[in-house]
Amino acid sequence: MHVGVLTFVHIAATLAGTALGLAVPHTHAVHERRRVPHPRINQRVSADVLLPMRVGLKANAEALRSAEDWLMEVSHPSSPKFGQHWTSAEVIEAFGPSSETIETVAAWLGESGIAKERITHSDNKGWFAFDATVEEAERLLHTEFFHDGIEEDRGSMVGCNEYHLPKHIQDHVDYITPGVRGTLMDLHPSSQWKRAAAEGKRATSPSTPRHGKLMPKGAKLRNVDVVVGGLNLTLDTCDEYVLPECIQALYNFTAPEPNSTVSANNSLGIFEEGDFYAQDDFDTFFTLLTPYIPNGTHPIHDFVDGAKAPVVQALAGGESDLDFELAYPIIYPQTTTLYQTDDLYYAEGGASGIFNTFLDALDGSYCTYSAYNETGDDPTLDPVYPDPRPGGYKGELECGVYEPTNVITISYGVYENDLPYYYQERQCNEFLKLGLQGVSIFVASGDTGVGGYPDGTYGDGPAYGCLRDDDVFAPTQPNSCPWLTNVGATQINSGSSVYDAEVAADQNLSGFNYSSSGGFSNIFGIPSYQTDAIATYFADHDPSYPYYYDGNYLNATNGGLYNRNGRGIPDVAANGLNLAVVVEGDFTLEDGTSASSPIFASLINRIIEERIKVGKGSLGFINPTLYANPQVFHDITAGYNPGCGTLGFEAVSGWDPVTGLGTPDYPQLLELFLGLP
Ligand SMILES: *[C@@H]1O[C@H](CO)[C@@H](O)[C@H](O)[C@H]1NC(C)=O
Ligand SMILES: *[C@@H]1O[C@H](CO)[C@@H](O)[C@H](O)[C@H]1NC(C)=O
Ligand SMILES: *[C@@H]1O[C@H](CO)[C@@H](O)[C@H](O)[C@H]1NC(C)=O
Ligand SMILES: *[C@@H]1O[C@H](CO)[C@@H](O)[C@H](O)[C@H]1NC(C)=O
Ligand SMILES: *[C@@H]1O[C@H](CO)[C@@H](O)[C@H](O)[C@H]1NC(C)=O
Ligand SMILES: *[C@@H]1O[C@H](CO)[C@@H](O)[C@H](O)[C@H]1NC(C)=O
Ligand SMILES: *[C@@H]1O[C@H](CO)[C@@H](O)[C@H](O)[C@H]1NC(C)=O
Ligand SMILES: *[C@@H]1O[C@H](CO)[C@@H](O)[C@H](O)[C@H]1NC(C)=O
Ligand SMILES: *[C@@H]1O[C@H](CO)[C@@H](O)[C@H](O)[C@H]1NC(C)=O
Question: Where do the TM regions start and end (predicted)?
Answer without folding.
Answer: none
